[in-house]
Amino acid sequence: MGISSNDFGKKMGKAGFRLLNIVHILGVLLLSVGLKAFGFEHIASFVFGGLVTTVNFYTLAIVLNAFTSEKSVALALLLVVFKYAILGYFIYYLVGQNNLHLLGFALGVGSLIITGPVAALLITKQARGKNESL
């Protein structure tokens, strides 16, 4: 008795989001150490930008789960609207603060450009390994 392709996709989707977040968090920490070694002074803003991206992906997983579940589409759309409204207000508030360095924050948000392909390679490798064992 095998596993259906739909069940396989759901399990890899959850595992993929988990792996993406783990790789992203570790990548942000490693990049912050590297930036500090090169004399970059705004590491806290960089790490905070990476944290905002990680939280954004966790909420994206919740929204995608709501879209794919048997619940109403209206609830999922409401989640999307409120997610981005809250995220937009949060970033607007942060930019207004004097403690946040904008370049460090932007680099932290953009750190997904570096950690994303690494996570994609690991997710693909993990999916191939699980697919061969099925």
How would you characterize the overall build of this protein?
The chain has 134 residues and is mainly α. It has helices at 5-37, 43-68, 73-96, 102-109, 112-133. The longest helix has 33 residues, at 5-37. Residues 1-8 have low confidence and may be disordered.
The main β sheet shows up as: none
Tally of structural domains: 1
**Structural class assignment:** mainly alpha
Strand content: under 5%
Give me the count of strands: 0
Shape: flat
- Radius of gyration in whole Å, from Cα? 18 Å
Count every helix, treating DSSP H or I runs of 4 or more residues as helices. Answer: 5
Short key terms for the protein model shown above:
mainly alpha
Short description:
The protein contains five helices and no strands. With 134 residues, the chain is an all-alpha fold. It has one domain.
Q: Would you spell out the secondary-structure blueprint of this structure?
A:
Elements (H helix, E strand, L loop, with lengths): L4 H33 L5 H26 L4 H24 L5 H8 L2 H22 L1
Helix pairs in contact: 1-2, 1-5, 2-3, 2-4
